[in-house]
């Protein structure tokens, strides 16, 4: 086992009182800026790990027994919110073939940020569809590595996004902007939660 | 890099590490469950168990263990469960594992917002 890499770059430990791990998933197509966003707000250098899944049934890479084994690597970072709560941010590729993994890996997640690149909006259609189907609360953030050419109304139409889903602009390279994206998601959750609590 | 490291891992070795077990469905460990060592490594202990006990001298989440050990999450869950069963580590489960609703209550979310705004 190769342990040299992690031992050369020690990870800052969690507080001794850390007790409650929270999750937010950042979903998006390749190169849209998921890892950039994780890096800009994480208190640790983003780490990477992987999960392997074996499932029987249809798919590519069929093994001898008709089982499909898929390995998915994902990045993550963390933010200590207070002495007990630690928020983990996971960057997840949005491609269709990975979704059966997210269902298990990211159950119990607070919510999701769908990061979109307006030059490749189609990359996010599947992710949005899947999150809606699952009832996972989410917001959409347009990452502007370059000045945007469309207004957000056009983006909303192109994504066929329901009016209640927040859509915002961000620059994933900037810490304050990425932080604002997370606040927007939790604000959205807060509205959903209070609406539910005020139901008769 | 890590992905390649695991792909080059001998499958027989991963099998040996976990004693041939691959079922993790009945385990309640989450990616963000925080693991804490409760005792020192003992003689004759499997080296991965020893490493987990050393790393978790500071509270460490399952996903960070996975990254640090360069082992898939599912394998780490099995190794940690061994240590939980023998009382060598304890687990701090996320509050999301206990709640039934898909969205936490507003009081909880308020605390999250305060934490984020203070960044």
Structure, described:
The complex is a heterodimer of chains A (200) and B (119). Chain A is built from 6 helices and 7 strands, in the order αβαβββαβαβαβα. Chain A has 200 residues and is an alpha/beta fold. Residues 1-9 and 58-63 of chain A have low confidence and may be disordered. Chain B is mostly helical. Chain B has one domain. Chain B has a 3-stranded antiparallel sheet with strand order 2-1-3. In chain B, α4 (62-69) packs across α5. The radius of gyration of chain B is 16 Å and the shape is elongated. Residues 23-27 of chain B have low confidence and may be disordered. The chains are: A alpha/beta (200), B mainly alpha (119). Chains A and B meet through β1, β2, β3, β4 and α6 of A and α1, β2, α4 and α6 of B. Chain B: InterPro entries: DUF742. Chain B: This is DUF742 domain-containing protein. Chain B: It holds the Pfam family DUF742. Chain B: It comes from Amycolatopsis carbonis.
User: SSE string of chain B, helix = H, strand = E?
Assistant: HHEHEHHEH
State the shape of chain B.
Answer: elongated
Biggest sheet architecture of chain A: 7 strands, mixed
Specify the structural class of chain A.
alpha/beta
What's the total helix number of chain B?
6
In spatial order, strands of the major sheet of chain A run 2-3-4-1-5-6-7
- Write down the overall mean pLDDT of chain B: 84
By DSSP, the count of extended strands of chain A is: 7
Low-confidence stretches of chain B: 23-27
Give the CA-CA distance, first to last residue of chain A: 57 Å
The overall pLDDT of chain A, averaged over residues, is 85
Number of strands of chain B: 3
- Percent strand of chain B equals 5-15%
Beginning-to-end CA distance, first to last residue of chain B: 30 Å
Q: Name the biggest interface.
A: A-B, 59 and 50 residues
Helical residue percent of chain A?
25-40%
Helix and strand run of chain A: HEHEEEHEHEHEH
Query: From the alpha-carbon coordinates, what is the Rg of chain A to the nearest angstrom?
Result: 18 Å
- Oligomer state of the chains in this structure: heterodimer
Class per helix and strand makeup of chain B: mainly alpha
InterPro entries (chain B): DUF742
Protein name (chain B): DUF742 domain-containing protein
Pfam families (chain B): DUF742
